[in-house]
Amino acid sequence: MKISTKGRYAVRVMLDLAKQSSEEYIPLLDIAKRQGISEKYLESIVAVLSKNDFLKSLRGKGGGYKLVKRPEEYTIGSILKLMEGSFAPVACLEKKPNRCERAAECETLKMWAGLEKITEEYFEGITLADLMENETGADNYVI
Questions:
Q1: Is the CB of residue 58 less than 8 Å from the CB of residue 64?
Q2: Fold topology of 5-67
Q3: Residue 113's Cα: distance from chain center in Å?
Q4: Three-state SS for 26?
């Protein structure tokens, strides 16, 4: 599995906002500058995050974006799944239940399902707050 730039940038945007005052709306231009990411590209990312109630947005003077919830309530897994779709390492695991005609006799299906489970559990076990703590030396999510 390869995480796309949209997934990686979404985590960076959410982490950037988590570090800011939860009372203020942060302009997208400020986030783009701090993160070194094109404002135009970030527009598509924050649109998805806002549409799915991960972010609040406010237009106009004093507008921008802020988190809907506290940093400890966002898992990295939830952000990545929103942007990427799933953690399935193979196409047959993307839809539940598995509709692959070979699923019953597939000798590798359990291995791929195990990798998906490990990946999902790993990312669901890390919050934005954990990443914020990492800056102070905590490594809660290192295996």
A1: yes
A2: Arc Repressor Mutant, subunit A (1.10.10)
A3: 21
A4: strand
Contacts of 91 (CB under 8 A, 6+ apart): none
Residue at token pair 């990295």: 76
pLDDT digits (tens, 9 = 90+) for 11-60: 999 999 999 877 889 999 999 999 999 999 999 999 999 999 999 999 98
The pTM of this model reads 0.87
Better-predicted residue by pLDDT, 34 or 91: 34
- DSSP per-residue string spanning 36-100: T--HHHHHHHHHHHHHTTSEEEE-STT-EEEESS-GGG-BHHHHHHHHH----SSGGGSSSS---
Q: What angle do CA 136, 8, 123 make, to 5 degrees?
A: 65
Which backbone phi and psi does 55 adopt, to 5 degrees? -130, 150
Per-domain boundaries in the chain: 5-67
* pLDDT for 108 beyond 60: yes
Identify any residues that bridge with 8 across adjacent strands, giving them in sequence order. none
Distance CA 75, CA 77 (A): 5
